[in-house]
């Protein structure tokens, strides 16, 4: 399983479309880049969140889903999950005061 906002917020939050394109070029085959960009642009109003979710999807969500499909194909009983709820406690209790504000974390790994 995985969480909706798998990666913790990092870097500059003022991500531009050009910077998103750079992430896209490193993560997605050229043939699929226009389609993937259109899908993320439709889902997220800020390039920062589009980039965060693209990186998390490529590194965690997609491999998890591929594994689940392979396990099901092999006849294994599978119980997949995706946590989508953001914690309602102050996460600085867990990570310290140096971290970005709570609203930037979403349903992060460890939530």
Could you list some keywords that capture this structure?
single chain; 111 residues; mainly alpha; two-stranded parallel sheet; 4 helices
Shape: flat
Number of helices: 4
Described by its quaternary structure, the protein is single chain
Strand count, sense and barrel status of the largest sheet are:
2 strands, parallel
Total number of β-strand segments? 2
In the predicted model, the low-confidence regions spanning at least 5 consecutive residues are none
Structure description:
By secondary structure, the chain is mainly α. Helix content is 48%, strand content 4%. The protein has helices at residues 17-27, 33-43, 47-73, 92-95, and strands at 2-3, 82-83. Strands 1-2 form a two-stranded parallel sheet. α1 packs parallel to α3. The longest helix has 27 residues, at 47-73.
Question: Briefly, what is this?
Answer:
The chain is 48% helix and 4% strand. It is mostly helical.
Task: Describe the SSE topology.
Layout: E1 2-3, H1 17-27, H2 33-43, H3 47-73, E2 82-83, H4 92-95
Parallel strand pairs: 1-2
Helix pairs in contact: 1-3
């Amino acid at each position: 399983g995985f969480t909706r906002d798998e990666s913790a917020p990092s870097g500059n939050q003022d991500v531009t479309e050009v910077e998103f394109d750079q992430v896209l070029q490193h993560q997605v085959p050229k043939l699929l880049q226009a389609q993937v960009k259109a899908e993320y642009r439709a889902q997220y109003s800020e390039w920062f969140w589009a980039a965060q979710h693209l990186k998390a999807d490529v590194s965690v969500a997609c491999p998890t889903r591929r594994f689940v499909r392979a396990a099901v194909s092999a006849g294994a009983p599978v119980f997949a999950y995706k946590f989508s709820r953001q914690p309602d406690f102050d996460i600085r209790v867990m990570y310290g005061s140096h971290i970005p504000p709570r609203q930037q974390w979403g349903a992060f790994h460890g939530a």
